[in-house]
Design brief:
By secondary structure, the protein is mostly beta strands. Strands 2, 4, 5, 6, 9, 10 and 11 form a 7-stranded mixed β-sheet that branches. It is globular.
Length: about 110
């Protein structure tokens, strides 16, 4: 049974940074792609960023140039570095290794 545990969320001012982590109980080498999604209140869950085993990345237009996804296969951990945060980045962020989901971590960007 694969389990994902996100951490690193919190309250940050606009322009600030946060680094989310997703610790995986199993090995992530077997997962071709890992991703971060987010869901704001009243909105559908959306893809934020994804990364394949070969290191190819994909980002939502709204976060390009501000967010960076990375994976450490040795530590079975996926990261999302978020810089220049905006109020519209406020959401619950979820780690995804298909078909597995984490429980989510809240990110609130507010002054």
């Amino acid at each position: 049974q694969v389990q994902l545990v996100e951490s690193g969320g919190g309250l940050v001012q606009p322009g600030g940074s946060l680094r989310l982590s997703c610790a995986v109980s199993g090995t992530i080498r077997s997962f071709h792609a890992v991703a971060w999604y987010r869901q704001a209140p009243g909105k559908v869950r959306e893809l934020v960023a994804s990364i394949t085993n070969s290191g190819s990345t994909n980002y939502a237009d709204s976060v390009k140039g501000r967010f960076t996804i990375s994976r450490d296969n040795a530590k079975n951990t996926v990261y999302l570095q978020m810089n220049s945060l905006k109020p519209e980045d406020t959401a619950v962020y979820y780690c995804n290794l298909p078909p597995h989901w984490g429980q989510g971590t809240q990110v609130t960007v507010s002054s």
